[in-house]
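User: Once you have settled down, look closely at the record that follows, taking as long as you need, and be ready to discuss the fold:
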Amino acid sequence: MVKISRYILVIIGIIVLSISIPKLFWTIFAKVPLVPVVYYSCILDDFVVVDSRRDKTEWYDADGKHYTHEEFETKLPLMFFRQLIADGTMPDTINGVYMDPSAINKASSYFRYTPVDLRAPVIQLWPMFESESDRVNLEMPPDYFRIKESMEFIVSETNKVDIEKSKLFTQALKDKGFVFPADIIAGIPTTRKSCDEGYFITDSDEQFFHVKMAKGRPVVNKINIPKGLGIVYIECVDIKSKEFYCYLFTRNNGVFVVLDEVYDLQRLPVEGFNPYLHSLKATCDLFNKTFTHVKDGEIRVTAVDDMYEVVGEYSTRWDTEFERNDGKLFKALFPFEIKLTIPESRFVNFYLRISPGFTWIIVNFITLIIAIVILLRRGYDIKRNIPDLILVAITGIYGLASVLIFPNKFRYNN
């Protein structure tokens, strides 16, 4: 019993140390690189960059020509139009189009996706707004819905199911071929939006639907999508131009937008995008849309026109975590680390990350020799401490510290 309890303590010690020591290491030594910000200029018909990686901010274009901050703003008149108007430097027309501030503002939108969005707590109850209330402002409904074996509306005041409303919406879904339960439900569950467009929902058969309420009645549209598209995440947006409803992220690395009213799927030019690992930024203006695909050590930027035809591409790289000096030192010292949180998830858990390469074997061998020397000096029988030595050989510094913190008091030589 003593042996078992001791090894439980040793293993717990290894886990605690593999969490705390790497965290302390990264706090002291980590030098996280700043990611450059890339835009597409309708003046240059090329990319311009804001770069703060060299301890100062630099503004330059794709050809390497540098600008002052004020010159840089003139290359992005659709982004800085308020400042340019105030300075009296805003052009009257660009590409033959009159620069109307209201039109510029209407066409502008920004969207950002990170893997955290995919791995985050999911809302269990959703408000179904009235999309044709004839009121200027949206109002919160008295009930919330969920979709399991049916679509249920639960009155918030009484916590009881509104049977009639539930039957009405459930039947409307069945009439369109919906297979219960729902897999993904996505919408904007707040009154802080210009209008209500309801929810985009996938069922258990990976079919895709648009569901909303108009005059108290269900409005259900089935959206045709390719079989096996594999939608894993939906992000609805409320953009002023009303060009599209939402972004779709799929398991086969495709990213799409669902165009307004016609429900056509427009694939975005972000090939190789992994929604579980990569980030995406979308910046739209009067002439172009720019998609910034960020993954470990690389940024890829693609600009398209109004017809989603590619008009320019830009990419740059930097050293990844284990290519930097701090990362090289870490993977030489530690065979692995355990994190309680990771950038790709909002859930607290035990996340094991193995150090790449095998340089840590040298350090593990040294710690094993140190463990043997300490055991001999303390008069321990090496043969009876084989399990301790195996732990040290596998876990390195963590194992050595743990077996020293919880020593074996019952295995001395006679």
Summary: The longest helix spans residues 2-29. Residues 75 and 295 are 27 Å apart (CA to CA).
